[in-house]
Amino acid sequence: MLKGFSVVVFVVLIASGAFLFESCGKGQPSAAPNSEVGLVFDVGGRGDKSFNDAAYLGLQMAKDSLGMKYQYIEPSGGSDRESALRQLASQKSIGLIFGVGFIFTDDITNVAKDFPDKKFACIDYSYDSTKALPKNLIAIEFRENEGSFLVGAIAGLMTKTEKVGFIGGMESPLIRKFQAGYEAGVKYVNPKCKVLVAYAGVTGEAFKNPAKGKELALSQYSQGADIIYHASGVTGLGVFEAAREMKKYAIGVDMDQWNEAPGYVLTSMVKKGNVAVYDIIREWKDGKFNGGTAEIFGLRDDGVDFVYDKNNKPLIPESVYKQVDGLRNDIITGKIRVPTQ
């Protein structure tokens, strides 16, 4: 919120569940029509220290540098997504609405069609190039497979057991992109290395089950894996707990997750959802919203990367970093084509 405004949390009861959102304090002047941004979080909500928190950081960046006011909603269940989007779209003050996560794809498409005077954007939208997008909707996609290839290469170069692991949240085309890139990176630098794979489930609930994440990670570590990469939202917090207990390495996702297990987080594949959210807000504010299109962020666009900083540099030999940095250039130039499935 803008400085000078108080933050009030409202609980809005709707037939499908309860929502929380941040708004201007009571008694403050009403915002101008279509001047605010709204956002609906994915499973796990704020505080997941991953995907949702990255999106929230984008809102904060827009507030700080653009003076943008915003509201957000955390659905209490999967059936709440469409209701939450409609709630925000119905407010005169809100002109741009984000859905965070591929599970929003159908709901945000339907709502965008019903509110043609509003603008919409969906992070990780399941884009189908054979179908036209509504002109007021932007599909935001990332080349997660490219960033995952690089952390896979780090794992393949650093494993001492010739076994590494991958743990996904909801088994889906999107998370399989992470898996495909990771496995390709491991095998590119270490063809003999075995990759153990497990998923926490087949519904959105699989992204918020740390106990399951710990169970899967302990199983993979006990099978000989010494490095595990997760792409599982809040479920991944259990992976870090297992890494601490077993004194093995884990690889974070979406944001730098070093603080979840200092000394045991080898690196993180960062997916810059904050940059995507901020850029879309800035373009919209400047009257340059390019609806009906897909915006894709990869290594070339600095949309994905891996962490190599003062915290984890002592864990990764410089020779490994240089080799993996060279692979980054090979992907950008097209010399290496990273699979998506």
One letter per element, helices H and strands E, the order comes to EEEHEHEHEEHEHEHEHEEHEEH
CATH class of the largest domain: Alpha Beta
Strand content: 15-25%
The end-to-end distance, rounded to whole angstroms, is 41 Å
Largest sheet: 6 strands, parallel
Number of strands: 14
**How many independent structural domains?**
2
Mean pLDDT: 89
Shape: globular
| Total DSSP helices | 9
For the CA atoms, what is the radius of gyration? Answer: 20 Å
* CATH level-4 homologous superfamily of the largest domain: Response regulator
Unreliable segments (pLDDT under 50, ≥5 consecutive)? Answer: 1-20, 22-28
State the oligomer. Answer: single chain
- Provide the helix percentage: 25-40%
Report what the structure shows.
The protein has 341 residues and is of the alpha/beta class. It folds into 2 domains: 7-142 and 273-297, Rossmann fold, CATH 3.40.50; 144-270 and 308-333, Response regulator (Rossmann fold, 3-Layer(aba) Sandwich), CATH 3.40.50.2300. Helices cover 35% and strands 25% of the residues. The strands form 3 sheets. A 6-stranded parallel sheet has the order 4-3-5-6-7-13, with helices on both faces. α5 (173-189) links the parallel β8 (163-170) and β9. α2 (81-89) packs parallel to α3 (105-114), α4 runs parallel beside α5 and α4 packs antiparallel against α9 (318-333). The protein is globular, with a radius of gyration of 20 Å. The model is unreliable at 1-20 and 22-28 (pLDDT under 50).
